[in-house]
Automatic annotation (TrEMBL):
Cofactors (names): Zn(2+)
Enzyme class: isomerase
GO biological process entries: D-galacturonate catabolic process; D-glucuronate catabolic process; pectin catabolic process
Name of the protein described by the UniProt record: 4-deoxy-L-threo-5-hexosulose-uronate ketol-isomerase
Amino acid sequence: MELRTAASPKDVKHYTTERLREEFLIQDLFRTGEIKLVYSHIDRIITGSATPAEEELTLTAGDELRAAYFCERRELGVINIGGKGTVTVDGRKYELDRKDGMYIGMGSKEISFASADAANPAKFYLNSAPAHTSYPTVLIKPEGTPSEDVVIVKDENKVELGSLEQSNHRTICKYILPGQVESCQLVMGMTKLEPGSVWNTMPCHTHDRRMEVYLYFDIPEDAFVMHYMGEPTETRHIVMRNEEAVISPSWSIHSGSGSQAYTFIWGMVGENQDFDDMDGIANQDLK
């Protein structure tokens, strides 16, 4: 597990492009046949992936967590952005299609990942936060019929925002949040931009009570997203490619513009779970 420390905004304003990418950008995330994890001291979030091929992959705590098993004191959010696959939690198997998700509660001991077709492997994107109590493990689907352990995203949690005229027509699909899928602190979802729109989270904001990680995907090889971060009056940018993630401290804006439309997964941990707890930044105040 890779470890990354927190960063002060006073220091970040002096970072070179290389240093900025080293501290906040997560590249080479989906390695076939591997689990990759990055532990950030910023609210203790773990960002990672599991990309099983022929063999099933088992999630372990590793030496870094000083725990008997990964979810001994943690909760875990999963969203599949690849081919069909399965997640097995303490002997119970869950089938995930592309863009299906899961919440796995604290106390889940045995967690493993498998692909239905090694030639088109599942790509399980992972966000994990420290937890204080156990909530039920559930499968989350954007569409379908709910059951005992399958949650369907509610209509009110599919929010259409922006417009083509403002280049930010997008739909936010909220997976893990209070009232739908309970968690200790993890909030997680996906935003898809419509063709012709390129801007996300603009006008931008900060939220001093929680941090956020973005995973950008559905980006062609010759395209990119310009991700903007930093204090509103000391903005910086990171050029991002397909299936790369970026860590955003609570004091930083987090917004992007692409060379074409794309999709991104957002995950937040911290002081509260109020999705609308944001400190908005007017466009004319950005520097």
